[in-house]
């Protein structure tokens, strides 16, 4: 049972908030009662930011997800005591870039599934660049350009992106909810968070996203790689 209320799941635009320190240790990290730090997952890296308290600043360089959400301070940073009220702030440029990138990869996944029926077998992202691997046997001539044109048409379509939660049974009644070749959703998860790109893509996902495809910005397909029989890797980059 997590003690931290995850504010970023309620509002991905939130960048600052106040919270109370529930646990603090230089090695295991800092637990807050409320946090907007995304802990990482689904290929999306964790947030960076700061905690401000009593005129002191603690830089946060990661989040550990285990018995609770534990914020990882940079080496040598001061640690607030249990019971301290802190002001949290997310590094906006990094989070916004990751939100755009994550939503852009969902656009890519939706286009490749729609046009080629391929499922995702792997993923990774950093701010403004990422890749998806697909179980795609072969690609036609002009594949790279046709995918780039298709994903940017969806960006220009300004499709709305929303996140909501459903009971597991209701979620799995949605056709093609799982767009990965292997279902990675643990069986103990009773409530499933859904990310829905209107008219293009509906997936189980726990990450943070922008509000519309136009907010992603134009994407470039950097490279299409052959990763072995029946597998292709598509790398994309986004503008600054």
Report a brief summary of the structure.
This protein is of the alpha+beta class. Helix content is 20%, strand content 37%.
Summed up, the domain count is: 2
Global Rg: 19 Å
Distance between the termini: 39 Å
User: What is CATH's topology name of the largest domain?
Assistant: Threonyl-tRNA Synthetase, Chain A, domain 2
Average pLDDT confidence is 92
CATH architecture of the largest domain, please?
2-Layer Sandwich
Largest sheet: 6 strands, antiparallel
Beta content comes to: 35-45%
Q: Which CATH class of the largest domain is shown?
A: Alpha Beta
Explain this structure.
This protein is of the alpha+beta class. It folds into 2 domains: 5-90, Elongation Factor Tu (Ef-tu), domain 3, CATH 2.40.30; 95-237, 2-Layer Sandwich (Threonyl-tRNA Synthetase, Chain A, domain 2), CATH 3.30.980. The protein has helices at residues 7-10, 92-116, 143-156, 168-171; strands spanning 5-6, 16-25, 29-32, 34-35, 49-53, 56-65, 69-73, 85-90, 120-126, 129-134, 161-167, 191-197, 201-204, 220-226, 232-237. It has a 6-stranded antiparallel beta sheet, with no helix packed on it. It has a 4-stranded antiparallel beta sheet with strand order 9-10-15-14, with helices on one face. A 3-stranded antiparallel beta sheet has the order 11-12-13. The model has no long low-confidence stretch (mean pLDDT 92).
